[in-house]
Amino acid sequence: MNVIVIGAQWGDEGKGKVVDIFSAKAEYIVRYQGGNNAGHTLVVNGKKTVLHLIPSGILHAGKICLIANGVVFDPNIFFEEVQSLAESGVFKQVLPYEMIRVSERAHVILPYHRTLDRLREEYAGNGKGKIGTTMRGIGPAYEDKVARRGIQVIDLLRPQLLKTKLQLALEEKNILFKHLFNTQEVEFNKLYEECLKLGEKLKPYVANVRVILSEAVRDNRPILFEGAQGTLLDVDHGTYPYVTSSNTVTGGVLTGSGLGLNLKAKVIGITKAYTTRVGTGPFPTEIEHTEKELANEIRKIGAEFGATTGRPRRIGWLDLIALKYAVEVNGLHGLALMKADVLQGFDHVKICTGYRYASSTFYDLPSSIEDLEKVEPSYEILSGWPRYEKNNMKSFSDLPQEMQTFVRTIEDYLGIPVVLLSIGPGREETLLLQDPFQS
Ligand code: IMP
């Protein structure tokens, strides 16, 4: 069986840790959408590693990590990560390109995409147009892909084609830089030379990832698909326009990796025991203004600061309406419930089970953000659970009764099981209740 790991909220659910644990059971680990806007913090043997682009499975020896066609790929960031992993001793026995392959078809993030991302956000000021992006050039790179003026990884290895494509791209970009944003134009020769050098360095990593995956599926080799961001940031199904520019939902796996519906996979949604969001946009259960002290406490205990940008994350209670939506749009088979330990010692915890709006109660996410901004959450209040000694928690039945009730309430509401429960940041602080690779 293959496994797909999807963020069920607004990202930052703890996918890195789940992917790290599941990687032990997979032969291939695949990133299929997004880019280095993701930030996966992993704690292994007490050592913290943050990865933005390379799949988190890289920390396991003997795995093949694939960056598939749906990713927007920043070569400079890629080489920085390879270097830092090499310094941590990850490639002791092998050459890095024996463990990592990058799709020929992935689109490249170039410096002008980052500049454009920043300029657009600055231009929007504090007005409604500001998305609060990670400024990594993700949106502009996807725009170019869809507008059919993107540069693909394979182009970096084809000097003549690269020249033509880059000239065309810059013609338009420089008009924007000069006349709209009133800023410096991009110098063609310098960028072209840089791209050729990057291409040369990238050569051993470049592969037809679709073929590798297709063969893996044919031979029943277990694959782990590592989603980035979260369902509510999906460009089609998220809280548009306050979303990222890729399909973060399960559908993105197929288009982003070149596989078809014959892929057999269990889809596991990752959620925290509460909710966070970075960047702008509606967030019904947010408590930043209503329970400010509690929000600060959760942020502090849960270390809720962006792994990519360091921004403080906005905090809110668990939202079962949004989670139910995630179950449906992704076809989730199970949930991984993260950071339940952060809420230990709280007197009570709240879970949102309805949205009130215009004297009615709704049980689905409204399509318009105008409506989502206005809804008031209806809460079910559950007893909190006492502090527990992590080392004594070997199985579900060891957990405090109130915590068990919390988990069962979520399962009952959503109709899917919690397959993994994280009770602390470390790899070992995890209860695997069902193994999705086995089912
Ligand atoms: P972009 O992906 O940089 O274009 O940012 C678009 C929106 O997605 C912003 O609200 C970001 O904060 C959010 N976002 C992008 N990547 C992540 C992530 O990995 N975790 C949480 N939010 C993210």
Can you describe this structure?
With 439 residues, the chain is α/β, with parallel strands linked by helices. The protein folds into 3 domains: 2-102 and 206-267, Adenylosuccinate Synthetase, subunit A, domain 1 (Adenylosuccinate Synthetase, Chain A, domain 1); 107-202, Orthogonal Bundle (Adenylosuccinate Synthetase, subunit A, domain 2), CATH 1.10.300; 272-432, Adenylosuccinate Synthetase, subunit A, domain 3 (Adenylosuccinate Synthetase, Chain A, domain 3, Alpha-Beta Complex). Helix content is 33%, strand content 20%. A hairpin with a 2-residue loop joins strand 16 and strand 17 (360-362). Helix 4 crosses helix 5 (138-146) and helix 6 crosses helix 7 (188-202). Inosinic acid is lined by residues 11-12, 37-39, 131-134, 136, 138-139, 228-229, 233, 242, 244-245, 278-279.
